[in-house]
């Protein structure tokens, strides 16, 4: 999740408000919510590094041979990952 604003405080508050709502919705549905990286103000260099980290995370989470969504559904489990950076 990203935001652009000339006021850093407003941007961080908007992100935190959104995170709080997402957490509330997930936990009310019996899910587990974990923040991988707290909202922060970043520079262009930070953004480039974050993009690389997200690409690595997507590659790591990519479905590999033998993985099956049906396997989790058969066990009554639903897994979801949300990257917030």
UniProtKB/TrEMBL annotation:
Top-rank taxon: Eukaryota
InterPro entries (alphabetical): TIF2_asu_C, TIF_2_asu
GO molecular function, one term: RNA binding
Keywords, in A-Z order: Initiation factor, Protein biosynthesis
Region (Disordered): 57-85
Keyword Protein biosynthesis: yes
GO cellular component terms, A-Z: eukaryotic 48S preinitiation complex; eukaryotic translation initiation factor 2 complex
PANTHER family named among the record's database cross-references: EUKARYOTIC TRANSLATION INITIATION FACTOR 2 SUBUNIT 1
Protein name as annotated: Eukaryotic translation initiation factor 2 subunit 1
Organism: Papilio machaon (Old World swallowtail butterfly)
């Amino acid at each position: 999740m990203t935001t652009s604003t000339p006021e850093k405080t407003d941007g961080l508050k908007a992100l935190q408000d959104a995170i709080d709502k997402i957490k509330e919705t997930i936990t009310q549905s019996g899910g587990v919510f974990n923040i991988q990286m707290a909202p922060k103000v970043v520079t262009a260099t930070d953004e480039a590094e974050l993009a690389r980290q997200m690409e690595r995370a997507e590659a790591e989470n990519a479905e590999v041979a033998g993985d099956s969504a049906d396997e989790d559904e058969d066990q009554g489990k639903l897994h979801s990952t949300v990257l917030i950076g």
